[in-house]
Design goal:
mainly alpha; MetI-like fold; about 300 residues; single chain
Length: about 300
């Protein structure tokens, strides 16, 4: 993880500096009356006049110490901004993953155990439709439908879960559903593919020959061994959703990490862009490590090796 995160931090830092436009122009609103001396004074105040290696070491050192710096635009600590945004994105991703697992795995199992049946064809066609619909397009359609039919539109300000659980869920469930459709399709198709492979194994045929019920063979013998690739896909999708839900957050007005990152990019807020992207990258790497460790929980044979 350490060399991976180091390479990510270096790439993020350099790519942020390669973004077109000057942060001074953004901060001053393009005021042409500002003299070069004044621009240089602002740059010096923000610490942008220092060599890039020095800026990089200051940023990395600040993150290691828990102080990634101040926002160039609002002068608020970056850590405080991310502390407000992270729970919103995490809640949205949790809702999406719960829907994906609760629907995708059963649909995949049914599709595989009843191959070439009507249910199998419906599940496969539904999976293709889910893969073909971008989440931001689906979110826009859902927002239009709920606003026209049910007269529901997202609240202007976000309501934390601990403050008003029902009000919070009314804000995040629909965006979570729109994000989860793509993941449901992936999980369903992966579950179906791995179940078909496992159901053709010798030990499954042996269990059937010994008189085990169809339900026991499917869920006790086959499903557990088929879940390893599914867990990999779910873990990968959780990391992807952390950043991929940005457009959905913008559409529904949820000030999560994706929304914060987009606003920071528009403002050329270097510390906020760098730290937000690094946080997403760190979460992605940790989730993949967690998935690797879960292999041993699902399949004891891996622990034995």
């Amino acid at each position: 993880m350490v060399p991976t995160l180091f390479g990510m931090s270096l790439a993020i830092f350099l790519m942020v500096r390669l973004m077109p436009g000057d942060v001074i122009d953004v901060l001053t609103g393009g005021d042409v009356s500002i003299t070069p001396a004044q621009r240089e004074g602002i740059r010096r105040t923000l610490g942008l006049d220092k060599p890039l290696p020095v800026q990089y070491l200051q940023w990395v050192g600040g993150m290691a110490a828990g102080n990634p710096g101040l926002s160039l635009r609002s002068h608020e600590p970056v850590g405080a901004i991310l502390a407000r945004a992270l729970p919103i994105t995490v809640e949205l991703v949790i809702i999406a993953v719960v829907f994906a697992v609760a629907l995708g795995i059963p649909l995949g199992v049914i599709s595989a155990s009843r191959r070439e049946s009507v249910g199998d064809y419906v599940a496969r066609v539904g999976g293709l439709i889910g893969l073909s619909m971008p989440s931001f397009w689906l979110a826009t359609l859902i927002l239009l439908f709920t606003s026209i039919v049910f007269q529901w539109i997202p609240a202007v300000s976000f309501v934390p879960f601990l403050q008003d659980p029902l009000g919070n869920l009314s804000q995040v469930v629909i965006p979570g559903i729109s994000v989860s459709v793509f993941v449901i399709a992936i999980v369903m198709r992966m579950t179906r593919a791995t179940m078909l492979e496992v159901l053709s194994q010798d030990y499954v045929r042996t269990a059937r020959a010994k008189g085990a019920s169809r339900r026991s063979v499917t869920y006790h013998h086959a499903l557990r061994n088929a879940l390893i690739p599914v867990v990999t896909v779910v873990g990968f999708q959780v990391g992807t959703l952390m950043s991929g839900a940005a457009i959905v957050e913008v559409i529904f007005g949820l000030p999560g990490l994706g929304y914060t990152l987009i606003q920071a990019i528009f403002a050329r807020d270097y510390p906020l862009v760098q730290t937000t992207t690094m946080l997403l990258a760190t979460i992605f790497v940790i989730l993949n490590l967690t998935v690797d460790l879960l292999y041993g929980v699902i399949d004891p044979r891996i622990r034995a090796r």
